[in-house]
Amino acid sequence: MNQLSVEQIKGVGPKLAETLEQINIHTVEDLLYYFPNRYDHYEQKPLHELIHNEKVTIVGEVLQEPMVTFYGRKKSRLTVNIRVDGAVVKGVMFNRPFAKKHFVAGDTISVNGKWDQHRLQITIDQYKKGSMNADNPISPIYSSKGDIKNAQFQKIIKQTIQDYQEEISEFMPAPFLTKYKLPDRVTGFSEMHFPSSFQQLKHAKRRFIYEELLLFQIKMQLYRKRNREATEGNAQVINMEQVKQLIQQFPFTLTEAQKKSLTDIFQDLHSPYRMNRLLQGDVGSGKTAVAVISLYGTVTAGKQVAFMVPTEILAEQHEASLKELLPKEVTIHRLTGSIKGKKRQQILSEVEDGSCQVVIGTHALIQDDVHFRDLAYVIIDEQHRFGVHQRNTLREKGILADMLYMTATPIPRTLSITAFGDMDVSKIDEMPKGRKPVETYWVKQNMFERTVNFIYKEIKKGSQAYIICPLIEESDKLDIQNALDLFAQLQEVLQGKATVGLMHGRLSTEEKEQVMLDFASNNVQILVSTTVVEVGVNVPNATVMMIQDADRFGLSQLHQLRGRVGRGDKQSYCILVADPKGETGKERMRIMTETTDGFELAERDLELRGPGDLFGVKQSGLPEFKLADLVHDYRALETARTDAIELVEHQFWKDPDYQDLFNYLQKELDLDKQTLA
């Protein structure tokens, strides 16, 4: 059935097939999986059960003749009062003045449309005299392109279910259908397209949400198994005694979360399979210390390490940290785009002959002229900043290298299961002792001068400040204080009492690096910047972060920015300057002032914004699901993941009861039983 072209369906000719292709419907199966995007229903409910902003049906008595007002060319508004359940509901209808004669005082009328709970008002789409016909209470509405009408869509789907139901085979294992009380595939399709009741529609949705998530999670687990087992033979012989000595010499004590992450990582480094691990840690939680200790383990095993970071200044900072923390005999080199000529050649030859044990760099590490002698461990910082292709190129340089990806973006559990389902995840969810939480305040735009005075007082104490703007220059569409204006304004207000620097995306890489170096060395006390400072720059002397138009940012981004301060032992402050109009903007400001826990913020951001906004779907590689919603269906996601792990661990492809499931997956995956054996 899945390979049958839509042209095989009765009533679908070449022209209609072409229209269907525009919305990615090529086969009979594609058509059946093209679910309605909403349902109209004429089920009459009491007023108190109606849901704000949803389509509803109400039946009542017309109280008096409607009033029609005209405005603009051919524009009109009809208003009618209808008595329903002892209350008066206002009905509003646009651009249909002729309907006035259909609403007669004293008549019973049924109207269908969008309900406004606050105004007791319905925006009428359809109306008829008497009560609505409840024979077909739930009507599917499809989003479609071209000339295809909703009624035509319904007709061809009805025809398809009727003609092909014998060929719609079930591939979901019977134990799962029984365990979760899910309908079979034929019933599921039938109820999704033509629900017999809301209860049955709910069950059908549950079935397809679980199916979608289970198939995705099995693919993830199979992918993980194949990658892991394709690289046997890279077990590292680490001198754990030397590693322990290094930890004892650290100027601070590791937190329990850091110790747990190190245990996970060392287990992977010792194992014969390739590590593919994500290390999540909130800003300032001590991921770098974990990276340094684990890479030293690889050095004691006589192998090489590559440490990849997104910017040159971060590479310099990591180089300084490593040289400070690791024993003097470890050879560490930095390889970035700005290192050229003889110096570059020298580093390349030491990397190639193995005398350089640790190389830190930007994407310069993945250029063709970089050859490692024995690369065994690759650490990628702020992993979502690198494309999948860049990560894979680096992986291929050390054919058997273990991979550790680090991110300071707190990823909610549901997203880490989905976006990083093929990875193991370690989480540093506690802060080092003695670290003072950043105090966060929300102020209005009219307090700008007071805020600048506060910043100046901090600078007089020897501190530094960031001021962040959303845009570089004036935008017609958004009334946002921009970086260039603010830079000029501050210079005027401070009149040389403090040096102000400017950083934005249009500067060249060299210019950006110079500005950051000036700031890091305190030649610049106030840095006005767009969000380019978000990633990993460490200036412990910076104690104030002021964010202009803070309501334009998501919670995760605000938290990342706030993480640029509070990195030393002084009390630090984050000042959010915003006049949010909507409730969501106000809620974001409130949440920011209430918590400094990045994981809690990420969960709240996910609820407020949805997964696509949080990550930018394209850059994160998040799958787009037809029905499943990562926020609301997180329980189904976790269940599907647990089931998928169990299926793959028990090699379900060998079990006759799971053959249909494996065969269905095989069409989409380039896998056969030999590959998995």
Automatic annotation (TrEMBL):
EC number: 5.6.2.4
GO molecular function, one term: hydrolase activity
SMART domains per record: DEXDc (SM00487), HELICc (SM00490)
UniProt cross-references to InterPro entries, sorted A to Z: ATP-dep_DNA_helicase_RecG, DEAD/DEAH_box_helicase_dom, Helicase_ATP-bd, Helicase_C-like, NA-bd_OB-fold, P-loop_NTPase, RecG/Mfd, RecG_dom3_C
Key words, A-Z: ATP-binding, DNA damage, DNA recombination, DNA repair, DNA-binding, Helicase, Hydrolase, Isomerase, Nucleotide-binding
Residue ranges occupied by any Helicase ATP-binding domain in the UniProt entry: 268-428
Reactions performed catalytically: Couples ATP hydrolysis with the unwinding of duplex DNA by translocating in the 3'-5' direction; ATP + H2O = ADP + phosphate + H(+)
Pfam families xrefs: DEAD, Helicase_C, RecG_dom3_C, RecG_wedge
Residues covered by the Helicase C-terminal domain: 451-607
Enzyme class, broadest EC rank: isomerase
Highest taxon of the lineage: Bacteria
Function statement: Plays a critical role in recombination and DNA repair. Helps process Holliday junction intermediates to mature products by catalyzing branch migration. Has replication fork regression activity, unwinds stalled or blocked replication forks to make a HJ that can be resolved. Has a DNA unwinding activity characteristic of a DNA helicase with 3'-5' polarity.
PANTHER family, sorted: ATP-DEPENDENT DNA HELICASE HOMOLOG RECG, CHLOROPLASTIC
Similarity comment: Belongs to the helicase family. RecG subfamily.
Protein name according to UniProt: ATP-dependent DNA helicase RecG
Source species: Gracilibacillus caseinilyticus
Gene that encodes the chain: recG
